[in-house]
Structure formats: C-alpha cells, structure tokens
Amino acid sequence: RTAATMGEPEPSAQAPLAVLSKVELRVSCKHLLDRDTLNKSDPCILLLMQSQGQWMEVDRSEVIKSNLNPVFAKIFTVDYYFEEVQKLRFEVYDSHGHAGVGTHDDDFLGGMECTVGQIVAQKRVTKPLFLKYGKFAGKSTITVISEEISGNNGYVELAFRAKKLDDKDLFSKSDPFLEIYRLEDDGSEQLVYRTEVVKNNLSPIWEPFKVSLNSLCSCEEKRKLRCVVWDYDSRGKHDFIGEFFTAFEEMQKAMGENKVQWDCVNPKYKIKKRNYKNSGVVVLLDMKIHRVYSFLDYIMGGCQIHFTVAIDFTASNGDPRNSCSLHYINPYQPNEYLKALVAVGEICQDYDSDKKFSALGFGARIPPKYEVSHDFAINFNPDNDECEGIQGVVESYQSCLPKIQLYGPTNVAPIISKVARVAADEERTKEASQYFILLILTDGVVTDMADTREAIVRASYLPMSIIIVGVGNADFTDMQILDGDDGVLRSPKGEPVLRDIVQFVPFREFKNASPTALAKCVLAEVPKQVVEY
C-alpha cells in the first residue's frame, strides 16, 4: 500500500509497499456504568480508526446482555503498518435490542484512545474509560490484549459438536454454546473463542471457526485449554452444563478421518452422584492447520527497537544563522532536518520501551578544543548520548547548533561502525533481543564511500537497519548505490551484503507530502529486514 491510497500525493513511483501484518485485539471491560433501570447495561464495543483526521468506524463487537464486566468474544482484526502511527478509539455503548447500538449520549458508557503500536508493544493495555469532555466514566476500565495473527505459528480451523448434553430448561431443551479458554502461566484464563448459541438442541453442531495458534495456545502444543459448555440465558445468567480440559497436542489427533471426543463434566455432579459419567460428550469433528510468517514475531517476542539519529553538521549546510541554511532555526516552522527527524522518530518511539534515543552529530568542530568529530553526542555527554524521546532530540539539536562550528568532510562510516559495535555487543550477551535502527540525516553525498560500504557490509550481519534521508537539493545519485535496490551493495573488496539493510530517500520528494508519507516510505522495509535477520 503506497501513500497514494491514503489520499496523499504519491511520493515516488518506487515507494515500497508496506509490510502488512494483522493483529488481533480482544477487549474486556470492568465496572461499566449501569444505564438501564430494570436490569444491567447490554454493552457493545465500537472500534474506530483515524483516517485523515476523521474517526471512521471499522468494526463492532457482539452485544453482551446484562453484564457490567463483559469479556467480548469478538476479535477485532486490524491491519498493522509498523511505519505509521495508527490511532484507535474504542467506544462502549449500551445497546437496545432491535434498535441496534444507539450513539446517543445517554447510551454512551465511555471511550478510550491509543495507537496500534502501543498495544502491540505492551501486549496488554488497561485504561480508564472517559465520557464526553474528559470526565471519568466512574471506575470503568477497558482492557485490550493484542496478539499477532501471522507469525511462523499460523492458524487452525476447528469444527466441534456435542451429543446428549444435560437439559437445563424446564419447558424446552438447552440452548448450548461452547467457550474455549487458554490457561496462562500465572493461573489466569484468556477467552480464545465463544461459539454461536444453538437453540433448543441437546446435540448441537457448532459452525467451524478459525483461530490463530498464538491465540489458541501461545504456540505451545502442550498448553492446557479449558472448554466450557453453557446453556444460554438472555438475562446474562448462563447455566453451566460441563467442562473438559485438553491441549492442542491432543486436538491434532482429529486430523484427516479421525475424531477426538471428551466427556463434558460438571464437577459438582461428579462429587454428588455416584454413577455420574458425564453431562454429555463434545466431539472435535475436524481440524486443519495453516502456517504463515511475519515481522510481529519479533516485536511481540519482546524485541525492542533501539533508535539512533545521526545529523550532518558539515559546512555545506550553510551557516545556521542564515535563513538559507538547512540548519536555520526558524521560530515559525521546523527546518528539513527536524521535519525528517520527527516524522520517522515518532513511529519508532512506540517500540522503544525506555523512549530514549541516541542522538549523534558528524562533520563539525566541537568544544572544548574545536577538533573535527564524526561521532559526537549532540547533548555533549560522551558517557550517555541518549535524549528523552523525540522532543529531547529536538531540544539537544537546537541547543548544540550555536556551540559547534560546521566543518567537514561528510564521513558516516564512524557512526555506522559505532552503532554496529553496540548491536554486536547486544547480540553477544543475548539477554534481550534488540534491533537497531540508525537514521542518518545528511545534505550531501558521503565522502568516505569506500569505508561506508565496508561498514554497511559488516553491519548487514547484525540486527540493524540504516535509513538515510537526503536533505536539501544536492545531487544524491551516488547515494542510491548504498540502497541495494538496483543491485547488491558490495564492500571495496567485493564482499556482498548479507541482507539489504539500507533505505535511502531524498527528502525533497516528500516536501509537499504529509510527514506520514515520509515515515511510511523509509520505514516500510524495516519489518522485512528484521524478518530476514
């Protein structure tokens, strides 16, 4: 998907397609406001996504009758683009049967906003619900849990039925539905799936359904699953029929012609009734497995992205005090360096747990001795070059400009090698999986091309990607060589890169597009580069 489909000018014919992944979001609420006089609220969730500044409804959940602490079975599936800030809004409404979900203020139980990136990075987000005008909706909270769909785990298709279930209704037969829960390591349970209700039937056949393996069992075949059969009650007081425990490992026996069945047991009856066998049996009629791969394995697996920005302070940028300079600090609008930094950095900060970014400069004479440096910390703290968030980088950049003397040449190999050393150390310790993104902002063609090619080939063996944004109007033809798209980049000795890790973009192609268009273009290849690594 290029930027053009977002209603923005298409930046260039070669704008790479984003690596698309899908994320499953599961929602539950606690302590919802009670809007109904006679019984409890019947909540329903609306999911809205921001597109061009407008909130658009993407999907909605089922309505859960008479429940102020609902766990919704509905799985919201959202397309996930690593290189965009995707804003989400969850709204909870009290539904009124036939009229569907009213969006009147008096049916509104609260809303919450966040980004897809935040949920993916944190895996589980619990936030308070707010009414209009920023008022808290009592003690109401909403919890959103994210799970990747793709990944090397794939998904399964399951078809269940039951036979001879206990009859819980006086004047008719039970109305059974089945719930599957995954048992977590901390003893809690996560609802994986809730089937439809089959009315008035003690031997129901439920519709086949698909769930991701990650969702079903966290990709662990032996992880315990609890399956519960209920008799549906419209007032929310469902009658327990029975339960059984299994694992994906056991379900796999239902491949092909085979079927697997379990006794559906009510533990109370087992204790009370001497000859009690079961409250019916549940049969897995069929199971199919489908497998797929994705970038989210890394982010969801706790892979942290460490972000470093390197800024070109060579004399060719022009004197920062002169309004023609690319480094001119205009009080009314950010210069091109700042625009590029903010556009790319804002995306990356969702995946950086400590929100600290290394910020380096090159090509300037720096205090105290005013010697040329090609890898200095712009906060002038050699022991800790990290800034607090993108805003911290912007502030360090603005305060360092008056203290340095723009000089040259444009050598970027020292900074690539510096980040590569950190990545190599991280890889050796293997304590946490970290992936390093180096954003180089430069106004010209690099001077040390041979050393830079050598450094990139070395770095291609490490968990890192390099994004180079060309600022200003220089001729960047030679820079395209570093972006291996036109052929394989080689070191001066002829050694090819292990993987294509460099993305080069001239900023002028995005001057009139929105900041998101630049971010999408330069970050679109990162997920693929992570997966190749």
Number of strands: 26
Global outline: elongated
Q: Structural class, from helix and strand content?
A: alpha+beta
CATH superfamily label of the largest domain: von Willebrand factor, type A domain
User: How many DSSP H or I helices?
Assistant: 11
At CATH level 2, the architecture of the largest domain is 3-Layer(aba) Sandwich
The CATH topology of the largest domain turns out to be Rossmann fold
| % residues in beta strands | 25-35%
Average pLDDT rating: 85
| Residue runs with pLDDT of under 50 for 5 or more positions | 1-19
What's the structural domain tally?
A: 3
Q: Major beta sheet, specifics?
A: 7 strands, mixed
GO molecular function, one term: calcium-dependent phospholipid binding
GO cellular component, one term: plasma membrane
Keywords: Repeat
Domain C2: 5-129, 136-263
Can you give keywords for this protein?
single chain; 533 residues; alpha+beta; Immunoglobulin-like; Rossmann fold; 3 domains; 7-stranded mixed β-sheet; 4-stranded antiparallel β-sheet; 11 helices; disordered N terminus
Q: TL;DR of this structure?
A:
With 533 residues, the chain is α+β, with helices and mostly antiparallel strands. 18% of the residues lie in helices and 34% in strands.
Describe the structure in your own words.
The protein folds into three domains: 21-149, C2 domain (Immunoglobulin-like); 155-290, C2 domain (Immunoglobulin-like, Sandwich); 303-532, Rossmann fold, CATH 3.40.50.410. The protein is built from eleven helices and 26 strands. The two termini are 23 Å apart. It has helices at residues 116-122, 213-217, 248-251, 267-272, 296-300, 336-348, 389-400, 413-429, 449-459, 515-523, 526-532, and strands spanning 20-30, 43-51, 54-60, 71-81, 87-94, 108-115, 124-130, 136-148, 155-163, 176-183, 189-194, 209-212, 224-231, 239-247, 260-263, 281-290, 304-312, 356-362, 364-366, 371-373, 376-377, 386-388, 405-406, 434-442, 464-470, 502-506. Strands 17, 18, 21, 22, 24, 25 and 26 form a seven-stranded mixed β-sheet that branches. Strands 4-1-8-7 form a four-stranded antiparallel β-sheet. 18% of the residues lie in helices and 34% in strands. A hairpin with a 4-residue loop joins strand 19 (364-366) and strand 20. With 533 residues, the chain is of the alpha+beta class. Pfam families: C2 (PF00168), Copine (PF07002).
